[in-house]
Amino acid sequence: MDAIHNWNAWIGTDEAGKGDYFGPLVAAAVYVDAECRETFSDLGVTDGKRLSNRRIQNLAESMRCRYAQHIVVVEKMPAEYNSLYATLRRRGQNLNHLLASLHAEAIRTLANSVGAKYALVDQFSKEDLITRQLSLRANNAPPLQRGAASTPCEIKIKQVTKAERDIAVAAASIIARDAFLTGMDTLSEKYEMRLPRGAYQVVEAGREFVKLHGSDALQNVAKLHFNLTDAVRAL
Predict the structure, then answer these.
(1) In a structure prediction context, what are the per-residue pLDDT tens digits for the chain, which is 235 residues long?
(2) Phi/psi zone of residue 23: left (φ > 0), alpha (ψ -120 to 50 degrees), beta?
(3) I need a labelling partner for 153 at 20 to 30 A (CA). Which of 3, 205, 210, 232 fits?
(4) What is the C-alpha to C-alpha distance for residues 32 and 82, in angstroms, rounded to an integer?
(5) Which CA distances in Å does 223 have to 79, 94, 211?
(6) Element containing residue 220 per DSSP (H, E)
(7) How many Cβ atoms are within 10 Å of 141's Cβ, its own excluded?
(8) CA triplet 84, 227, 203: central angle to 5 degrees?
(9) In this predicted structure, what is the pLDDT of residue 154?
(10) Where do the domains of the chain lie, and which CATH numbers do they carry?
(11) Which residue from 157, 152, 100, 142 is spatially nearest to 125, judged by alpha carbons?
């Protein structure tokens, strides 16, 4: 993979579910050192967007079996996601602020556990929102998420576009996608219907869900701020 830095050990983060109408929003952080870097390379870890769901699930299981202590997942299922998003909008903030909060929580938790000093993030905003979130917590400001890790950590954050070419970020993309797929399966089983991934061709599934479970229950499976919600509820 292409070299983005010269660190010997670092954290990579990525998210899944941001563009999916149904299902959770997930951020994952993976710590890579010399040993697990070699192992991940041997396993064939690469950008999760290039892999089939079956391959993602197999790789995620292999990584967890070998290096569970190097992995942190922060997941917000739709009900909590919708509540947090509404809070952000009242503050004049947007989805990038929620993403930054999840990335920061994952980085903070893992860095405090393994003693990492560096983190690489696939850039999703021009503002340095992740560093700001970490600084807010270090100064004991109230977090966006209740129950977030509270121990301050000092870590250098590097944000670049197409960071998935880095093995730590690639590993995080796989872990995040696997957690998203698991969350989707959980919701599909709970409500006894298949919830499609993505943001296209989901209106009919949404309308079927509303017919079966009612409009109020939609907040438990979907990201309500998507424009699709009006079409879903227009029965």
Answers:
(1) 667 999 999 999 999 999 999 999 999 999 999 999 999 999 999 988 889 999 999 999 999 999 999 999 999 999 999 999 999 999 999 999 999 999 999 999 999 999 999 999 988 887 789 988 888 765 554 445 444 444 445 899 999 999 999 999 999 999 999 999 999 999 999 999 999 999 988 999 999 999 999 999 999 999 999 999 999 998 6
(2) left
(3) 3
(4) 33
(5) 8, 13, 18
(6) none
(7) 11
(8) 110
(9) 81
(10) 10-186 (3.30.420.10), 192-233 (no CATH)
(11) 100
Q: What is the pLDDT of residue 150?
A: 41
Phi/psi class of residue 222: alpha, beta or left (left: φ > 0; alpha: ψ in -120 to 50)? beta
Q: Widest CA span of the chain, in angstroms?
A: 56
Cα separation of 102 and 80, whole Å?
A: 13
Percentages of the chain per state (helix, strand, coil), in multiples of 5: 55, 15, 35
Six token digits for residue 172: 């995080």
β-partners of residue 12 are: 30, 120
- Is the CB of residue 118 less than 8 Å from the CB of residue 154? no
Distance (Å) of CA 29 to CA 65, 122, 160: 16, 12, 16
Q: What is the pTM of this model?
A: 0.91
Coil, helix or strand at residue 94: coil
Which residue, chain included where needed, has tokens 């696939």? 122
Which residue in 165, 171, 170, 174 sits closest to 4, CA to CA? Answer: 165
First-to-last C-alpha distance (Å) of the chain? 49
Token readout for 156 is 């250098």
**In the structure encoding, which two tokens stand for residue 44, read together?**
């064939």
State whether residue 13 is helix, strand or coil: strand
